[in-house]
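#lab-general

N.A. 3:47 PM
ok so I finally got the sequence cleaned up, no stray characters, all 285 residues accounted for. can someone with queue access submit it? mine expired

B.Y. 3:52 PM
send it over

N.A. 3:53 PM
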Amino acid sequence: MPAHTIAVTSRVAGAGKTLISAAICRWMRREHHPVCPFSAPGTSKSDWRSLQVLARAADLLEKAAPSGGAEELAALLEHWQYVVIDCGPGFQPPPGPRFELCNASGSGIEILDSVSGQMLHAPWYNASVLFPEIPAEVAQLPEWTFANAPHVGVCSLPNLRNFADFRLFRGAVWLSSPPAGLFQYVLLPATSDPAFDRRWLAEVGLDAWIERQRSQGCRVICAGSNLVDGERVQAGELQDFRTVSRLLGRRLAPPEPDDTALEALAVWLERVAGIRRLRERCLGS
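B.Y. 4:20 PM
back already:
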């Protein structure tokens, strides 16, 4: 069976091609149809985040969606029945269904269905979860790698309350006793039993060890904790990749978009275009 392609195009920069392409991919997956996104960037290189969102929307095992030009697309069409093409400027997609984004503003998105000639007026979609803003000072930081990561320790309190605060600290050492070596950061989590955990810190010798680390230049960060003296951050604040990037002086990648956000995107597209139109355009039925 020949491949069925759906193209999303625009002559307007920042109109939301990747957003609509991802929405189509996730909608098709919700309809139980395997689909592969393809980014055809034209004269510019595809953004890594866009490739990541497209891959997640289509449930690809790869971290990033395939990209390239006409040859790469032709090879892809041999293996997939459905391909959604996110078309950059200068790339001519194969004949077939096409959604062209004509305008985008804070008030909404105009989507031209090239098959019927009908213009769809979609309310603007808040895509900050899928495409989080990266401030300039964070973008300029060196990328975080295991090779250049600061030495970070997290106190493994018996009554630790906010484990999710530390999921971004990859490679951190969880401390239940004083280790050797100098750390650049020591993190104190919030606790559900401050009295017990304060005694525990003293019994295992971590309280004195933390003070020695501090005297040698280590930064002690208290995340919703007042067990020791240190720099205070609110519980939950360290779950933001931008905050942790600034703290460590290394640029962390945004977290992968979760299924909840992608499902909401598919539902939004279905409400805008209608289930019947999506079936006709995307599935050919």
